[in-house]
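Summary: Need help interpreting a holo structure output

Steps to reproduce:
1. Submit the protein chain below together with the SMILES for adenosine-5'-triphosphate.
2. Request a joint structure prediction with the ligand placed.
3. Inspect the structure token block that comes back.

Expected: a single structure record containing both the chain and the bound molecule.
Actual: see attached output.

Input attached:
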Amino acid sequence: MLFDVKPKEKVADLYGRKKELDSLSTSLGNGERLIIVYGLRRVGKTSLIRSFLGEREYPFVIIDIREIYFVSGSVPMGMLYSTIVKEFLRFAESMGKEPDIKLDGGLRITDLLKEMNRWCKGNGLVLVIALDEAQYLRFSGRVRYDGVIAWALDNLPNIAFILTGSEVGMLRDFLNQDDEEAPLFGRFKNEIYVDRFTADSGTAFLKQGFEEAGSMVSGKDIDDAISSLDGICAWLTYYGHFRTVEKMEHGKAVEQVFREGSGLVMKEIEAAISRSRRRYVLILSAIVEGMSTWGIIKAYVSSKAGAVSDTVFSSLLQSLVKLGIVEKTSDGRYVVTDPVTAEAIRRLKK
Ligand SMILES: Nc1ncnc2c1ncn2[C@@H]1O[C@H](COP(=O)(O)OP(=O)(O)OP(=O)(O)O)[C@@H](O)[C@H]1O
Ligand SMILES: [Mg+2]
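--- attached output ---
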């Protein structure tokens, strides 16, 4: 069902994304072993990789790194290790194969990867390890997960990696794109960008979803939903869900998406800005009020919170961009394009 609010697990439930699915398929088919899936929040990255892997012959494990991070405050190797083992055993069993990997209890992730590589080789398979929200791997204490991945790429030909991240700049930092000394610097990677729906594809998505649910919805409602919610896949899915499952009329459904969605986004923003909350809130408020250049936003923040140095201000603004809350346009302006995120910012306690 297109309007199911959980991440999709089947290509049949995934609207569009043919290009991205083909790219994943071609990449792995050609023996490429490092794929990065970028995309702002709620555009359907998890749905894309789950649906893709759910239907191919590749054995796979999908690990939600953000979940581990939120549970533990970091990404401890033991936790990652046991999650991978659990997922791997589940997969091997679902294929009716004996998952005979030998582990000595040392809990070293490199030993685990080596064993899984050996097993895959013996079975003529390539294991895909998908690390969802991989930017959180940088909270790893002393372990260098980028080093582990680089080592695996060099030594374990039967293991491939798909990394996704909604905090695009943070994921780039983890990959250390600019540091020649970094383990993943200069590696060949296939980079896939998942974008929000255009007005046309969002409209087609809603039409198809309503048809599938057997609901009659006017073109006027659909146009209005698109102009209120933009092409963010999750908000359109919620809208469809509220209309078809909760039987709400148009206005109520849009209102409900703003209410629930902004509540969700507020929590994420609060978690991200807690260290310098007052200044972050001022920056965000300035941007949703329509101030969009570096100088004007900075002047606004200084007028409310006192002088702030260029460096500090730049780094705060840059963090918001790396987190994917604020976008920087090609002509250097700062904007929040997701209407639900803008609403969440308006609702933040000032
Ligand atoms: N192409 C699509 N077809 C149908 N539904 C989709 C599609 N893309 C996203 N969705 C729906 O949108 C919501 C968000 O999708 P998903 O969780 O996969 O996105 P994400 O990019 O991983 O988000 P997050 O940044 O929160 O991890 C879900 O309800 C999902 O079912
Ligand atoms: Mg996701």
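--- end attachment ---

Reviewer comment: Residues 311 and 317 are 10 Å apart (CA to CA). The mean pLDDT is 94.
Status: needs-info
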